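Quick log. Single chain, no ligands specified.
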Amino acid sequence: MIPATRRAWTIRDPYTGPRPDPSQRLISVTNLINPPRMIRLTALHRDELPPEEPGIDTWKLLGTAVHAAMEQAAESLKTRLAIREIDERDFRAPLLVEHRTETTVNVDGIPWTLSGQLDLLEADGILWDWKVTSAWSVSDGRQGKGEWASQLNVLRWLLERSGAVPRGTVRGLGVWAILRDWSATQARRDEGYPDNQEVAVPLPIWSESDVDDYILTRLRAHEAARASLPLCTPAERWAKGGGYAVLRSAKSVRAERIFDRREDAERYRDEILSGKGLIEERSGTSVRCGRFCRVSSFCEQFKKEKETE
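-> predicted structure:
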C-alpha cells in the first residue's frame, strides 16, 4: 500500500529543464555530460517510457527535497536582510538561486541550444551545487565524481556566455555533498572516511579553452548520435567486473588477473606467463543499464549484453 501523495509526487516529476523532441537540437548541461546513446534513445522513446515507481525514484525525491529546502532558505535570507532582521556583516544575499539560462552554440555550422540551471551562486562568487550522494563519493581523498567538475565548469561558462552574470563573477566552484549513507562508526575507525555527514567538495576551474573544447566535443558526440547510435563505453555503463582476463589455459577456472586495458593484459601474459595462456574479454555487469537507465528496454546494446550473461 502506497500513500496517494507519494504516488502523486512520482507522476508529477519536478524537473523543469528541456525535454526536446527528436527533431530539436536542445540539450541541458546534465544531458550534455550523459551518454549520447542514452540521451538520443530518450528523445526517440520519451512517450513510450513507463512511469517510475515509488522506491525506484527515492534518490530523486531526496535530492528534490534538499533543493526545495535550500531555495526556501535563500529566499528567506533575502527577506530577512531586507527588513534588517539579521546583520549584513554575517550574511550576504546570494546572487542567483535556482536560475536557468541558455545560449546557442554553433557546432560545425549547426546551432545547438545549451540550457542549464544552477543551484546557488553566492555573493562571494562561489557557484555551489547541492548533491545528495554516497559517502564513497568523497572518501579516500576523492574530489567527488568526475562529472561534477564537468557540470560546474559548463554551468560557469553558460552563465557568462548567456549574459546571466558578467565574466569573472564566478570565482570558485564547489559541491555541498549531503551523504545519505554516512556512518559515525565508520568515521571513527576509517581515516579516509568523511568526518561529517555534510562536506564541501571544492572543484577546479578549467581554462576557457578547455571548457570550449569539452563542450564542442560533447555536442559533436550528441550530433553524431542523431545519425548513428554509438555504443556506451564501460565507464558510461558503470560496468563492474569486466575487462581483459588473463588465464593460464582454456581449462583454468579462475583468471590470473583482470585488466581494464588489453595491452596491460598482453604485457602481463608476455612478462609473467612467458607468453603462454590466453586473454578473454569479459563484459561484466552494467550497473547503470540494469538499474538506472530508463531506456534500457529500447537499447540493443543492453539486450545483447543480457543475452551473453
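The longest helix spans residues 58-82.
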